[in-house]
Each structure stands twice: as C-alpha cells, then as structure tokens.
Specification:
203 residues; mainly alpha; 2 domains; 10 helices; globular
Length: 203
C-alpha cells in the first residue's frame, strides 16, 4: 500500500506539472505547489526503503548494495553539494531521495561502504542536525542584515560570511540540542516501549 501511495503521488505530481506546461503556460499551479512543498512522496520513498530492508528483499538489497549503484549515488551527492545535481526539474527531489536511500542502505553493511560515515564528527552532526535544519535560515537572515561590506563582491567577503554562518549555526544548534532537545529525548527514552539502537546509546 505504501508503495502504491508513493507511486501515485509521484505520478500525480508529474501529471499536474505536464498539465501546467501544456495548458497553464508553464506557470506553477496551486496543486503542484502543494505536492512540491509538502513532499509526502519523499517521506514515503524512505518508508518504502525501510519496509523492503526489514523484509530483506533480495532484489532491493542487491541493487542498493551494488558497488556501481553506490558509486553513482555518491557522485550525485557530490554534484548536489556544488549545486549541479539536475535530471528532471520537477522530480529532482524525488530522485535525490532515492539517492539518499541508497547511501543510507550502503552504510549498513561495512564491507559495502564506499565512504564510511561511522565517524564521531558525523555522529555529532547527526545529533544536532534537526537544530541545523531549523536554525540555519534564521541565522543566515539575521547575519545578512548585520554584516555589511563596502565591497560585497570580494571573494574574501563570501568566505568570511560562510565561516561565520557555519560557526554560528553549529554553535546554536549544539546549544539547542543540549539544553532543549536532549531533555525531551531523555523523557521519550524513559517512556519508550521499543528502543532504537541510537536510543540505547547515550545522546
């Protein structure tokens, strides 16, 4: 059922975009905007992957653990990091979700890893990732108002801004995790019936 809903939403989004191109002069309509903004289909892609992994589906595992597929997935990650990932504009998010799913599954079996993400730095970033996600737009917005350069086109100015934003986001996200999120996570752990592997470790 999850697979059908996910596929249905992706097909619906595609059909709506084609309709907008053909009959709405390419303008983005309300229906497409809702699907593109909520991205429920992207969450369902992750859910489908979790179900297939839980069922140990041999075709799914064979595909996602394939060295060539893993290489393509990591190449897509690199391209996305430099803002060069583009296949089909209105389906780029869904395609990248599949890419992310492949990378995640590839981290489960050690012998299949191209890049090993099991590192204390990544563990730390993972813990504060929600704070990074929530806080970074606010930090960028307010720093853009606070920092002014006489010549905004100098490359050094961009470097300074990136460094300041990076340090500010990481610092605030860490404080948010330690003093706001962590108490709630501890409370959740106290009342959890089934604990995940991450919950069994210290936060």
């Amino acid at each position: 059922m999850t697979v059908l809903i996910c596929a249905g939403l992706i097909l619906l989004k595609t059909a709506i975009r084609i309709y907008d191109i053909q009959y709405n002069n390419g303008n983005i309509g309300l229906a497409y905007s809702i699907l593109h903004t909520t991205r429920f289909q992207c969450m369902l892609i992750g859910a489908v992957g979790a179900i297939l992994y839980f069922q140990q589906n041999k075709w799914f595992l064979m595909l996602t653990n394939n060295y060539f597929v893993q290489s393509i997935a990591w190449l897509a990650i690199v391209l996305a990091a430099v803002n060069q990932f583009h296949i089909i504009s209105f389906l780029d998010n869904e395609i990248f979700c599949v890419v992310t799913l492949v990378v995640i599954i590839g981290q489960i079996k050690t012998e299949k890893r191209i890049v090993n993400l099991n590192h204390p730095v990544f563990d730390f970033v993972g813990k504060i990732s929600y704070g990074i996600y929530v806080i970074h737009p606010l930090v960028i917005f307010y720093l853009a108002k606070a920092i002014h350069f006489s010549n905004s086109q100098l490359p050094l100015n961009y470097l300074i801004i990136y460094i300041v934003v990076f340090i500010a986001v990481i610092s605030i996200a860490y404080l948010s995790y330690k003093y706001f999120e962590k108490p709630f996570l501890s409370l959740k752990l106290k009342y959890s019936i089934v604990r995940s592997s991450s919950e069994r470790n210290k936060h």
